[in-house]
Amino acid sequence: MEPGIALAPGLVHHPGWLDAASRAALQAEVAAVLAAAPAYTPRMPRTGKPFSVRMTNAGPLGWVSDAAGYRYQPQHPETGAPWPPLPPTVLRAWAALAGYAAPPEACLINLYGPEARMGLHQDRDERDLTAPVLSLSLGAPALFRYGGLKRTDPSRSIRLRAGDALVIGGPSRLIFHGIDRVLAAGDLLDPGEPALPELPAGWRLNLTARRVSPPVAGPVAAKP
DNA sequence: GAGTACCT
DNA sequence: AGGG
Questions:
Q1: CA–C1' distance A121–C2 (Å)?
Q2: How does pLDDT run across A166-211, given as a tens digit for each residue?
Q3: The pLDDT of residue A223
Q4: Average pLDDT score over residue span A40-48
Q5: Which bases of chain C come closer than 7 Å to a protein CB?
Q6: Environment class of residue A186 by beta-carbon count within 10 Å: exposed (0-12), middle (13-18) or buried (19+)?
Q7: What pLDDT is stored for residue A185 in this prediction?
Q8: A5-33+87-210: what CATH class?
Q9: Which nucleotide in the DNA or RNA is closest to residue A151, CA to C1'?
Q10: Could you state, in order of their start, the residue ranges of all structural domains in chain A?
Q11: Residue A155 CB closer than 7 angstroms to strand B?
Q12: How far apart are CA A138 and CA A161, in angstroms?
């Protein structure tokens, strides 16, 4: 597993982990996901207030939020279709960085317009909290804020750029985190084929791979 | 098992 | 910073 920069125990930043070719490949993979599973606007539990971020998913399960609450489900909430397969680049990054044998089951794709934000929150809807969450960034840079295990713990922010990977695991698995703001220009989406017609310059895209359920028990060790 | 991926 |  590659070193990266430990921001806290279990919270590891890998700046520029995806090279230009991998970023282009991932963009093409995201374009395919969006074609099969269009971005939609999630809503807050109970109040139904819309998020500023748009979302879609890939993998056997996807994270969704609406007035009924947060949950993982196998189908797109609007089309009813199963989520498309996990992008190969996400699986490759997981194998290299997650330190977890079983593959991810969900890849949440967050699409941030120039004004989009994500308030401080915990990723705690997964039953398997021993697996890390792996984040990959594309497009415009953004200010990522992270704190501690309590909402009131002090927080810091770092800049995430296109190609950065971030592993959120171990003692940091349940830290509060969010996106303060997307930064203007600077990094545009790499020109790649096929382009992402739904993603104008100035947008940021984040993919988070998650293990939702504990892996089924493997072979039992032989007794002496 | 609160809530709070939101808002003031 | 903190709400109910």
A1: 14
A2: 999 999 999 999 999 999 855 444 544 344 544 567 899 999 999 9
A3: 46
A4: 94
A5: 1-3
A6: exposed
A7: 59
A8: mainly beta
A9: B4
A10: 5-33+87-210
A11: no
A12: 7
